[in-house]
Amino acid sequence: MIRLAFALLLTAALLGCGESVPRVPAVGPNEVIVAFGDSLTYGTGAAETESYPVALGQLIGRKVVRAGVPGEVTAQGLTRLPQVIEEHRPALVIVCLGGNDMLRRVDEAQIRSNLRQIIRTIRGGGISVVLVGVPRPALLTSAAAFYGELAKEYRVPYEGKVLTDVMHQLDLKADLIHPNAKGYRRMAEAIAELLKKAGAI
Fold this sequence. Notes:
Blueprint: H1 2-16, E1 32-37, H2 39-42, H3 52-60, E2 63-68, H4 74-88, E3 92-96, H5 99-103, H6 108-124, E4 128-132, H7 145-154, E5 158-159, H8 162-167, H9 181-198
Parallel strand pairs: 1-2, 1-3, 3-4, 4-5
């Protein structure tokens, strides 16, 4: 019994030490969220109606714009971003970029620099940011460390596990690097949960 009590106390203490999700302003029912990224945001591997932004919008009851461009690298996203912000005037932007950079072996310092500037550009417009980490292209992998480091640096809510989890399950994948409809649904559920913890919803 003593060992069990100690184990429970230790577990509670460890959970209590977990990092809290940074808070962001609530997104009102009539405000817009932009999902900004590449093919993972576009929904390659599933029907348009099964992409994660569409599923997310259904889950949280907000308008989520699917601003994903297949094949895009962070440098191209940085160039495209101001037009997307101007067109949609979002309250929050979910950034999921960098996978194509890693596939093309772009220098990691350059990917980090581009993502940092993307976050700064969004924040500069008084818009909240959420960051999604993309796994490195490898058989056994996890999200590149620079995503978590940038999230800590700028105190933005961060989802760094769901894409790795999806990529490790064959029944959630359309091909080697893209989820299927079930995988995108899983992605949307994880991001919806993060938005709730952050106070956005």
